[in-house]
Write a structure and sequence with these properties.
Number of helices: 13
Structural class: mainly alpha
Strand content: under 5%
Order of helices and strands: HHHHHHHHHHHHH
Mean pLDDT: 95
Radius of gyration: 23 Å
Helix content: 55-70%
Number of strands: 0
Distance between the termini: 65 Å
Shape: globular
């Protein structure tokens, strides 16, 4: 079948009158969304729109990541492992998208960025409260981060809530305990407002799960999902670092940080260290 004049006719039932019906644009509130890009450079620099959209898109994805992680945490609390893993699987796909997005921002050259960078003031991705909330949800807690958001009451409240709530890892370990696995009492009663730190006793438990995978398949699969989650997060951090180096080299960040050097330190942060440490023990 060929199209006449290279034009596709409408199907007879396609709705075209939206005076009294909900449209695509209305459902997504596109007027608000598409008018949320407000460059501050004077005169307006062509590439600032790229910079804004790249970061706004990241924030939208982070909103969904946080939504899914909080649901997964609640599912684990209720011993519903399958829905929790479904949410984690979705987060993993979002992470891949977030990592690939750096390639778009990396098209911004050093010369182009320096022409509008000074208009940003002290604004920086360091101040992304959703990113910090995701870190908190995964167990990388840091109470000092709350001071950055004291001027933003809703953000401060969210981060306080996430700081004081058990992380995904906390709830997973509690789930394992209820399922009959040996989880040290000190872990079950730990202060969840503190960042997770390595516990060698837990490695023994994970070794038992891995070396008897067929008998512990659900727990085994969940462990691997968490490993994927951390792997993806580290890839995102690394791509962030390399993009910053590509655009500004070793300059300090707009927030006063050491820039790339500061981002490099983030690669040493970990969420589930025992799940990586157990790999050294298996087969040893």
């Amino acid at each position: 079948m060929t199209l006449k004049n290279n034009t596709r006719e409408f199907d007879p039932e396609i709705v075209t009158d939206f005076r009294e019906k909900m449209s695509y644009g209305a459902y997504l509130d596109l007027p608000t969304l598409l008018h949320a890009q407000n460059p501050v450079s004077v005169p307006e620099h062509h590439d600032e729109l790229l910079f804004i959209i790249a970061h706004q898109t990241t924030e939208l994805w982070l909103k969904l990541v946080l939504h899914e992680l909080r649901a997964a945490i609640e599912a684990l609390r209720q011993d519903q492992l399958a829905p929790a893993l479904k949410g984690i699987a979705r987060v993993k796909h979002i992470q891949r998208t977030l990592t690939e997005q750096w390639s778009v921002l990396a098209t911004l050259t050093p010369t182009e960025y320096t022409q509008f960078r000074h208009f940003l003031g002290n604004s920086s991705g360091f101040q992304s409260y959703q990113y910090r909330a995701v870190e908190f949800a995964l167990g990388n807690k840091n109470r000092r981060m709350l001071t950055v958001f004291e001027a933003d009451a809703p953000a401060h409240a969210l981060l306080t809530d996430m700081l004081e709530a058990p992380s995904l890892y906390d709830e997973f370990l509690r789930y394992l305990h209820r399922a009959g696995f040996d989880i040290p009492a000190a872990i079950l009663g730990r202060d969840v407002t503190e960042a997770w730190t390595f516990n060698p006793e837990l490695v023994h438990t994970f070794r038992g799960i891995y070396e008897n995978a067929s008998e512990n398949w659900a727990a085994y699969e969940a462990c691997e999902e968490l490993v994927d989650l951390e792997d993806n997060f580290q890839l995102w951090r690394f791509r962030h670092l390399k993009t910053v180096q590509r655009i500004i080299g070793m300059k300090h960040g707009t927030d006063g940080s050491s820039g790339a050097a500061f981002l490099h330190k983030a690669l040493e942060l970990t969420f589930f260290p025992e799940l990586f440490a157990v790999r050294t023990e298996i087969g040893a």
